[in-house]
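Recap slide: Exportin-5, sequence and predicted structure.
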Amino acid sequence: MADQVAAMCDQLTKAVLVMMDVETSQVYRLEALKFCEDFKESSDLCIPCALQLADKTKPAVVRHFGLQTLEHVIKFRWNNMPQEEKVQIKECAMQLLSSGTHSILEEESHVKDALSRIIVEMIKREWPQHWPHMLKEMESLTSQGDVQTEVVMWILLRLAEDVITFQTLPSQRRRDIQQTLTQNMDNIFSFLLAVLHVHVESYHKVKGQPGHELQVRAHCRVAVATLNTLAGYIDWVSLTHITCGNCHLLETLCLLLSEPELQLEASECLLIALSRKGKLEDREPFMLLFDDVAIQCILSAAQSADGLSTSMNSSEPLAGDVVERRYVFLKRLCQVLCALGVQLCSVVGSDVNVGVPANLSKYTEALLAFTTHPSQFLKSCTLATWGALFKHEVLSKDAVIVQMAVKYLKVSMTNLVKTGFPSQNDNPSSEYSRMDFHSDEDFHFFFYSFRGQQGDVLKTASRIVPLEAFQTAADWLHYQIACPIDLGQTASKSSKGSCSLMSPSVVQWDAMTVFMECVVSQILKTLPEEKLPVDQSMELLQAVLNYDTKDPLILSCVLTTVSILLPFLVHRQQLVPQVLLKLFKAVTFEVDQENKGPRTKSVKNVRRHACSSIIRICRDYPQFILPCYDMFHSNVKKLLSSDASQTCMEKASLVESLVLISNKFQDFEKQKAFLDELLAPVLAEWTSEEMRSVLWDPVKLLSFVGADQVVAEQDEHTNMASLNRGRMSFCLNAVLAVVKRARWPADVEEAKSGGFVVGYDLTGAPIYRNPCSAQFLAFMPNLLALIRTQNSLFMPENIARLSETFVGAHELMDTEKNIVIGLPQLPMDFYDSPVYRSNLERMQGFLGTLYDNCFSLLGSAGASLQKEFYTIDGLAELIAGSAFVSLDQVPDHRLRSIIRLFLKPLVVSCPPEYNESLLRPLLAPLFAYMMQRLSMKWQVISQRASADGDDEEEQVVCQKSEVTQEMLEEQLVRLLTKEVLDLLNLSCISKKVAEPAASKEENGEEDMMMDSVQTSSVPEDLTELGKCLMKHEDICMLLLTLSFTSLSWKDATNCNRTASMVCWTLLRQVAAGNLLPEAVTWFFTSVLRALQVHGQHEPCNLTLSQLAMVIYENLRPRYVELRGVMIQIPNINIQALDQFDQKLMDPGVQKPTEKKRKDQFRKLIAGTIGKALCEQFRKEVHIRNLPSLFKRPKQDKDVVDSEVEGLASLFSPENISL
């Protein structure tokens, strides 16, 4: 036996060394690994070999393998092991712990960790019932040396992690161990604090003494391990253990903040303690940390760490090399301060009699110091605490907080400035950003969120000191206006003398506009009208209007400032003409009026910004425009009749502004005449014979827009085709603007007197007419023809007509592809580039926008025209004959537009009386087609996923572009699936059902409300349209088939939503009827199949299990076939199924609670639930329950009686020899 063990140990040692040797080939490494794993799984020599390999004379990697083998034996063989062997393992493990390790500084951490896990695995199986003196044994081990003490700390920590944090035990074992730990927590905490005290004292005694460096490190190592163990318990023990002894633990932790080697672990313990929730009276002792000693400890530690976190060395090329550990400690300390502030806000002003601390000013100064730190991360950590302080009912009125609000406003002026990119060296923040962010992209997205949080806190501070906030904003604006433009080192590449997004002037202007918007929005809500700083705001507005710049980025900020100050014009309207002139000038903005090359996106944004501002004034403040309407109208007409310098989008925006003003005429005939005049040239163009021939013929359309022409890249492309595209786009955009904006007065009496009301419906509600109806109806025939023609463009013969230049014209642009697959670009990547980088991009943008606008116009018509639209003769046939033509050829990204921009708005706005005549003929064939199309798409995706690993060589050769294309196609299928299922949901499901279900789904709650089919049907479950569709048997089965089929598509989000909101709501409508048994079986099987696909996702698991149970409970009494499906589930307990069926169908048996029924049913269907790939090949660990200590014991069926009797004496004192 000994020879066998020795021989096997030699082989294992060689195998382990081969595995760990970097020079070993992959083949030999895999062979060695297989040999070791096979040994652990099947060898009878595991225990003696493991003990021999764990001997401290062996190399560390070999010892680690021996300890791992011992842990493996305990995990997977313990239940079947004889008692004597268990005792032997326990004795040997304790012997290893006692004398089988090197000194604390010599021993490898992974060896100590492996040893601690062996002890923990035995504790999880035998304590407290069969190892009652475990804690005492651990305590006695600490007297044998530092390494034993450290391993004991690790044992206690790993035990808490497995039992409390990760919960890797069966519920009864977890409950037994947790309750025993809780009962002994006084002793455990006393023990931990005693160990900490002893080693910290010893550390202090020998620290700095020559020749005692190793002792210092040893004591420090044990103290760190003890603090880490405390952190594992502080998170969940009763608060009384943390605050007992006048907060002795917290006091100790505060004192340790001054020790560089221990401060990080001490701060983490403090943070966990102060982050605890619970009764307010239990948290009241935390206020002791506002005493002088505690606050001073925190301040001193922060100052010391901040001084050491940056080592300044002028000889290095980059001064300011951040020391990571000190910086991490600063983060923890900042979080400690923030958590302390949260506790303060909780107890002050509550039922607990706690006043405002005397040291509040010292605390807020410390918090402000972190807010002004160069690290952007530290600044962001303080925001939530500032917000809580400024919002607090009591604290916000305290003089200290009011004064601090003013200081915070000043600090925000710096913090809002976007600086500190990791790639830059122009700011102290960059050093810290390189520690916190992998790239400029990461920093950009962080700062975007960070600035939003700052804005929220700024608004709160502005409510406390509104006038001071406005004065600060005004001073900053005056400073920016007076300050010369600083291009910095990163000027614009396309425009000489212009700024880039990183230029100092741009980042300052950008931050100032954010500050101004936050402040102004709050003072308008906070201050009464008579206290508003109207004079000062008009002075600011005048200064902004007088400020002139040719830099597009700064001009955009100037326009934002004008928009922010617009509400003050209500009180002084004399500046309205100047505001309008400023905006009209910006609409025609060019960097260089003489050299009009391709416009960059920054220039386009200025012009678009100006158009949006004009629209906003006309929408929100039409009273400003009416007194100077003639001037406004003449400027708009001048711009509309100008040359091609205005894009069709800009011209359409100007049309939109005129329509918004015309809504204030409050006279139907006058507004109609105005719109007739406005759209006359548009309609003349659109209905001309030339345009008609183009819109009805795909060949002529391609030629008209130039898609069949080869165009040189250097061509300015101001040819006839470009003008044609502009003409077509303007016609469409102009009518879209009119249809979206033209409205009748909101007041019924004004609408009646203005001639907008033409009658009343059966409920007495007025029926309105829209002044743009005639124009739209004249526009509509060619619009439908264009939609039909565009769908025909995707036919193979028309694709072949595209020129070499525009062969990819129907594809998404690169920027759109990046958005779809989740790769958004940074603004600095494209602000300086032309709007379209190539002729192909220009054509892609035109065709995509044209397609979207057609369906957006059609979708807006119903809500705008109402009855005049829905009463068009043969409307359903007209739409089906255009929008639904050639759908097989329409790509997914275009099909999304049809559903999102047209069908969804149509369903929302359509009156119920037109459901049968309009929506049913449209939706029924669409859902049938989409189910067929999506089923095929998802089948391809599933086949592709299953074949991914079949041929590794092909994967290596596979080009990156092919992978990206597959990702794009799959993501587009997901988006299209979402649109289809959302349309189904919108059409059929009432929000009275959808909202609670969605809420519970998002909250992850297991108990979802599901009505039973035996109860009376709730009429609000289905919309009126849903009832209309479900009346027709063929449509009803189509909707059910689509809903249940979609559950198995590999899209967990859509599955969860559909299962929780749609499936049972639809099935319940027909469940009381005579469904075929095959149909019922198919519905139930579909849910089980979905569990196989999505079961590894817990939200889907809960939702689908609930759906399966509801179907089974409601339909099983009438359909015995469901039992036939159940018995096919792998590993199902037939006896448990019989009991479940009996309780379900026997009216005389008392039914268990819903929670118990759910648990029972989930156990029955457990065999169908799919597992994640990482779980599929994991060997399960089985831990047997022991006789319960805390309730009447029950017979454990899987434990043999004789073994129970034998285990009672396991680990008894006579069987323990150390």
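The radius of gyration is 37 Å.
The longest helix spans residues 915-946.
(End of recap.)
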